[in-house]
């Protein structure tokens, strides 16, 4: 579990990767062990087969962001593993769909303008995943001068705020696996999105790259909010309603709902979405970072609530909980993080 110490990395992509790998070596090794164990458990497959599926993504990543492959290689050098293993870790969400094994859960929001007490943009989310997942807080400073502050979940995906004045939240979405396509892995395109120097550049990249299993929204200090839902053959831009965006693990786009499997896999997604909408509406005009922390502690429909706790009636592979809670204020350049359930853990403040 995270100690709350910020891992700071800077320099070339290879150097940043090495610094990250050195500082987070044990957590990354633990995460690698976990993904290979889960993805091969119960299948007639091997670690080598899992890696063979992951490397199919390499040409797409090479074309989209060759610099990021250098960062992955630097991390692998520091951890002491084959760089293809580290690349496989970055593909875990797509591989989870391919092998039908891993499903991440989250509840996210973004609010701005007259919805907040002081007019500042606020965004964030609760991250739901397996208990005891390794977490790190990492600040990376790139040679273009952009700093990115991230909560790293298992070393395979990050939730971030940057010095260009925008932040990002994300949720998993699920469609029938027979529509699976080899596109870009989430873990390999979000880093490029978050090191852009403007909101518009970042969102343009999201539209180019996001396909298949994700919802994302960006929110910036000037009050711009914009989301994107994706399926394997397209995407839809989600505009805010009344200065608000909120999302869980079910599609909002009408044309995608016919292929949405949340009703079977994640039925609590709908209740969490409606609960978030109600809480935001009740507090409209009075929203602050502290009030959003209270919203993220909400236990309506527990244990599968916004603040999620382990449900002992679920099988082991569904024993998920809130592993971290984030509230970001881009104008102030701060990210408040509770390491664990926010009803139990105090938020700590980090500056980008």
From TrEMBL:
Keywords: Acyltransferase, Transferase. It holds the Pfam family AAT. Residues 197-342 form the Peptidase C45 hydrolase domain. One of its GO terms (molecular function) is acyltransferase activity. This is C45 family autoproteolytic acyltransferase/hydrolase.
């Amino acid at each position: 579990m995270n100690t709350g110490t910020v891992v700071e990395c800077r320099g070339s992509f290879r150097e940043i990767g090495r610094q990250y790998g050195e500082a987070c070596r044990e957590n990354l090794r633990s995460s690698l062990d976990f993904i290979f164990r889960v993805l091969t458990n119960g299948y007639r497959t091997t670690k080598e087969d899992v890696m063979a599926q992951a490397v199919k993504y390499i040409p797409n990543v090479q074309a989209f962001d060759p610099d990021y492959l250098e960062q992955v290689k630097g991390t692998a050098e520091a951890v002491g593993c084959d760089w293809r293993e580290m690349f496989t870790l970055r593909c875990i969400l797509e591989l989870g769909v391919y092998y039908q094994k891993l499903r991440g859960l989250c509840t996210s929001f973004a609010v701005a303008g007259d919805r907040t007490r002081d007019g500042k943009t606020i965004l964030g989310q609760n991250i739901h995943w397996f208990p005891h997942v390794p977490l790190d807080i990492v600040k990376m400073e790139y040679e273009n001068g952009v700093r990115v502050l991230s909560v790293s979940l298992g070393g395979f995906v990050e939730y971030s705020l940057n010095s260009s004045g925008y932040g990002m939240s994300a949720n998993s979405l699920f469609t029938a696996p027979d529509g699976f396509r080899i596109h870009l892995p989430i873990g390999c395109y979000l880093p490029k999105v978050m090191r852009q120097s403007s909101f518009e550049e970042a969102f343009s990249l999201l539209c180019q790259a996001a396909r298949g299993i994700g919802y994302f929204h960006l929110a910036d200090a000037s009050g711009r909010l914009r989301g994107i839902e994706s399926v394997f053959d397209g995407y839809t831009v989600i505009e805010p309603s009344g200065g608000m965006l909120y999302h869980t693990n079910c599609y909002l786009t009408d044309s995608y709902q016919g292929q949405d499997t949340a009703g079977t896999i994640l039925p609590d997604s709908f209740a969490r979405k409606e609960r978030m909408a109600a809480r935001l509406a009740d507090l409209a005009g009075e929203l602050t970072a502290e009030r959003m922390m209270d919203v993220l502690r909400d236990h309506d429909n527990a244990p599968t609530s916004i603040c999620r706790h382990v449900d002992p009636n679920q099988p082991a592979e569904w024993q998920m909980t809130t592993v971290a809670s984030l509230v970001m204020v881009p104008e102030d350049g701060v990210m408040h993080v509770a390491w664990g359930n926010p009803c139990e853990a105090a938020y700590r403040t980090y500056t980008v």
